Structure formats: C-alpha cells, structure tokens
Amino acid sequence: MITLGSVTWLAKYFKRQQPTDNLVMSSNASDPEPNNSTNGTQKVQNKSNVIQLIDELVSHMDRTRGVFKIMILSSFILAPLCLLLTAVFTIHPFLLHRILFKFPNLGIFLLFFIGVSVILASIWLYMGLSERSFFSNWENKYNRYKLLKRRLDKELGQESST
Q1: Number of structural domains the chain divides into
Q2: pLDDT single digits (tens) 120-161
Q3: Phi then psi for 128, rounded to 5 degrees?
Q4: Is residue 51 part of a domain?
Q5: Is residue 97 situated within a structural domain?
Q6: Exposure string (b/e) for 13-28, b if CB count within 10 Å is 16 or more?
Q7: Do residues 100 and 29 both lie within one domain?
Q8: For the segment 49-105, what is each residue's pLDDT rounded down to a tens digit?
Q9: What is the spatial distance between Cα 160 and Cα 153, in angstroms, rounded to a whole number?
Q10: pTM of the model
Q11: Which of 142, 153, 144 shows the shortest CA–CA distance to 12?
C-alpha cells in the first residue's frame, strides 16, 4: 500500500538525485538491425515520472469522487431493497409454495435467482459500506496531501537552489 509517507520519501529521493540520472543511448554503426538503433538520438528517463503518476492518480480520484458517492448511495438503496424483496418471496407463505408445486422448473429457477440475488446484494452492500468508510474523510486526506506536497516542493526547491 502506498502511503503519503512513502510518496514523500520517494519525492525527496528522486529530487536529490544528481543530473546523472538521465539515460543516454546512442546507436552503434555496426548494429545489423536499424530498427533497434536510436540513430544518435538521446532518450531521457526522468525518475520523477513515478511521482507525477501518483499525483495524477490522487487528483483523478478526487475528480471522480462524485461517481463513487453515487455508487455508495445506490448500494445503500438498491441492495437493501433487493434483500427486502427476496425476504418477501421466501417468507410469504403461499407465493413460493404455489410456484414450486404448480411450476416446478420455474420454482427451482426462482430459488436459484433468489440465492444469487441475496449473495450479490450482500456483496454490493458490503462494498458500499467499505467505500463509504474510505471516502468519509477523503476531503481531509486530500487537503493534507496537497499541503504536504506544497511543503515538500518548497523544501526541495530551496535545497536545490543552495
């Protein structure tokens, strides 16, 4: 699991690297396959791309927070509704009994469908509860992340200028 502390450590580590972290590749004139050569061009690998990728991921999660809220809300509405309907089908004294004896094939399919519905609704409700616990403090966590990122950028900017 990537925590804010590990991101901070990674940022400090990669920012402190000397300018020798550039990778230079040149073509070899005796290379038999011209497609594999770089023809004298230089390719630069910037190690801060990992940090930028993590920043983009966190920003994307902040932007899509609304979609997650809708998913959580739907799990709190639809999953209990499904569980309630399946309880009505199974507890009702005559409904399931009449279906099982008049239409046995349909009754078996209905029992299978009720079982699958209960399992899926339970999973959906559990996912909604776990996502709600994650996103309940998201705003505070994201603001803290942005503050620490600004501080880190400021500290590293001062270190590189000295």
Answers
A1: 2
A2: 999 999 999 988 888 888 888 888 888 988 888 888 876 665
A3: -65, -40
A4: no
A5: yes
A6: ebbeeeeeeeeeeeee
A7: no
A8: 777 788 888 888 888 888 888 888 988 999 999 999 988 888 887 888 888 888 888
A9: 10
A10: 0.55
A11: 153
Looking at the fold, whether 68 and 36 belong to one and the same domain comes out as no
Domain that holds residue 91: 64-161
CB atoms within 10 A of CB 1: 3
In a domain, 55, yes or no: no
Based on the domain organization, do 114 and 77 belong to the same domain?
yes
Q: Is residue 56 a part of any domain in this protein?
A: no
Pair (81, 17) in one structural domain: no
Give CA–CA dist 10/43, Å, rounded.
23
